[in-house]
Amino acid sequence: MRPRRSILTYRARSWTNIGESTAARGLGRGLGYNFQLSQAPSIVMSYYRYHVFFCVNQREPGAACCNSHRAQDMRDYCKGRIKALKLDGKGNIRVNSAGCLDRCDEGPVLVVYPEAVWYTYVDKEDIDEIIEEHLKHGRIVERLKI
Ligand code: FES
């Protein structure tokens, strides 16, 4: 019988030598499964610890859009801070520009994965708080959450 797919996709490259080890069976039981490694559901090991998407969309004058609230500047500021803090790169934090995320009236918006936490912001202090609290310490900034 084919194993059920999980939200998580198992990246077995570094685990292949584990085989049918106690650790692998323990992982399965920890996830609520009783399986052999070869039957394991897939588990995703994220390439980045956090992936931040800033909507930087610009609409015609008068239409609600994130870039009317300096979204591109805030994205550049965030990316620069992450780099200056040496938090960028594989296994760490990536900051990307995005097109419209379809929450224009709530903007400016950004979203942080893997938790899919949406934020709005006003200024650099808000971005600094998201970096310090969420990206550095894993604490969601409730006051900026949308
Ligand atoms: S313009 Fe940013 S969500 Fe639509």
Structure, explained:
The chain is an alpha+beta fold. It has 2 domains: 45 residues, no CATH class; 95 residues, Glutaredoxin. It is built from 3 helices and 4 strands. It has a 4-stranded mixed sheet with strand order 2-1-3-4, with helices on one face. α2 crosses α3. The N terminus is likely disordered. The chain binds FE2/S2 (inorganic) cluster.
Total number of distinct structural domains: 2
User: Percent of residues in beta strands?
Assistant: 5-15%
Described by its quaternary structure, the protein is single chain
Give the end-to-end Cα distance, rounded to a whole number of Å: 42 Å
Second-tier CATH architecture of the largest domain: 3-Layer(aba) Sandwich
Q: What is the total tally of β strands? A: 4
Bound molecules: FE2/S2 (inorganic) cluster
Indicate the structural class: alpha+beta
Number of discrete helical segments: 3
Radius of gyration: 19 Å
Low-confidence stretches: 1-35
CATH superfamily of the largest domain: Glutaredoxin
User: Order of strands across the biggest sheet?
Assistant: 2-1-3-4
